[in-house]
């Protein structure tokens, strides 16, 4: 079974600054995906960024980028130029590839507060 | 942009009553999921569904739960006899080809249904 750990329950950052959220995971699989989802106060789950484990290049999506360290099983999210709208709960998630169910396994989340 | 929709947004029910939560996945998606999130806790997988049958289910998904795709658009989660501990946010997700995406491996979530069991 896979486990996903987010060691920072809460973080805060000043508007326009950069913040990094940590995520580690444990798996014996070699073929998988990793995701970051954002959950604002509305509680909708919104995809932020995804990473395929077979790709060495770190994924980027505008102000969001990841640092994927496969050997260390680490998958951190960097938010640059933080905006007030980035205030939300952030969940790291793991999904096996080529699995019939392809369920997502989520970490416990990091609550990010962006301060003006 | 296509999106997953869920109804109702909030459901209040008495313990022991049956509830049906409804989801309309993204058109052309073939894989469907239910997750739940008890307030303040992590999101937990319940069940996945493909080709009109359950692909995988968690320990949470016991005999009180069932899923169905009654027609070509809806995907439902039924809880037969609700318990207090079923109070949670229930998320539907779907996966498949999505316009603008190069991959079918991303799950897109609906806005959730908040279930309150009294």
What does this structure look like?
The complex is a heterodimer of chains A (116) and B (118). Chain A has 116 residues and is mostly beta strands. Chain A is 0% helix and 53% strand. Chain A is globular. With 118 residues, chain B is an all-beta fold. Chain B has strands at 5-7, 10-13, 19-24, 31-37, 43-50, 53-57, 65-68, 75-79, 88-95, 108-109, 113-117. In chain B, strand 7 (65-68) and strand 8 (75-79) form a beta hairpin. Classes of the chains: A mainly beta (116), B mainly beta (118). Chains A and B meet through strand 5, strand 6, strand 10 and strand 11 of A and strand 4, strand 5, strand 6, strand 9 and strand 10 of B.
What is the approximate shape of chain A? globular
The main sheet of chain A comes to: 6 strands, mixed
Percentage of residues in DSSP E strands of chain B: over 45%
Shape of chain B: globular
Please state the average pLDDT score of chain A.
93
Helical proportion of chain A, percent range: under 10%
Q: How many runs of DSSP E, i.e. beta strands of chain B?
A: 11
Structure classification of chain A: mainly beta
- Major β-sheet profile of chain B: 7 strands, mixed
Number of β-strand runs of chain A: 12
Beta fraction of the residues of chain A? over 45%
């Amino acid at each position: 079974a896979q486990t996903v750990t987010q060691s920072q329950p809460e973080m805060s950052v000043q508007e326009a600054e950069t913040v990094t959220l940590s995520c580690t995971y444990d798996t014996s699989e070699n073929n998988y995906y990793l995701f970051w989802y954002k959950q604002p106060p509305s509680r909708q789950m919104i995809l932020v960024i995804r990473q395929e484990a077979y790709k060495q290049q770190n994924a980027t999506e505008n102000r969001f980028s990841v640092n994927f360290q496969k050997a260390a099983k680490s998958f951190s999210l960097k938010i640059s130029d933080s905006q007030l709208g980035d205030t939300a709960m952030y969940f790291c998630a793991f999904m096996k590839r080529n699995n019939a169910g392809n369920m997502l396994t989520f970490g416990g989340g990091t609550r990010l507060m962006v301060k003006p | 942009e296509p999106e997953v929709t869920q109804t109702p947004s909030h459901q209040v029910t008495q313990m022991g009553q049956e509830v049906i939560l409804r989801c309309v996945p993204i058109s052309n998606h073939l894989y469907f999921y239910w997750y739940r999130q008890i307030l303040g806790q992590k999101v937990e997988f319940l069940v996945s569904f493909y080709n009109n049958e359950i692909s995988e289910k968690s320990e949470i998904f016991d005999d009180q739960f069932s899923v169905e795709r009654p027609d070509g658009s809806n995907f439902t989660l039924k809880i037969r006899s609700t318990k207090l501990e079923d109070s949670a946010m229930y998320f539907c997700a779907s996966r498949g080809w999505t316009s603008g995406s190069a991959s079918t491996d991303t799950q897109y979530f609906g806005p959730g249904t908040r279930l309150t069991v009294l």
